[in-house]
Amino acid sequence: MYGEARRRLEDLLDREIEVARLLSAALSAERSVLTGDAPEAVRQRTEEKVQLLGAIEKLESERRALCAATGLGVPGEIAKEEVGVSATVADRWRALMELMAGCRMANEVNGYIIHVRQNQIRQLLDVVRGAPSVTYGPQGKTFGKALRALARA
Asked: Which residue segments constitute the domains of the chain, with CATH numbers given?
């Protein structure tokens, strides 16, 4: 039973690693379209990312259930001296954690790009609406300067 459980755990980790690699590629593609001007491409990349995150959550759930049912420790919670985990499981776990850390960083960068783009759009809308723009005076302090609206509906 133990050998079969370990093999199943290795298989689950392999599938998680593969999905994490796909997620990493999806995040890279998302970053590319975020800097462009194709909202449909952004929507498609975001949907792909959400599907991959769902797949990772499902695999993680399966992995935790397998570990709980068989008495194997969850790879990230195992003491080094515990005999239940093979070196291959530990290696796969480390590889998965490295991939997921890279995905987290890429997602944060994408979030930052989205935030910057939102601010740019907000500023452009303020110009169109004639809202006061924020400028800097000679002492470096900000003040609002009223502009004429570019368009009226």
From this structure: 2-107 (1.20.58)
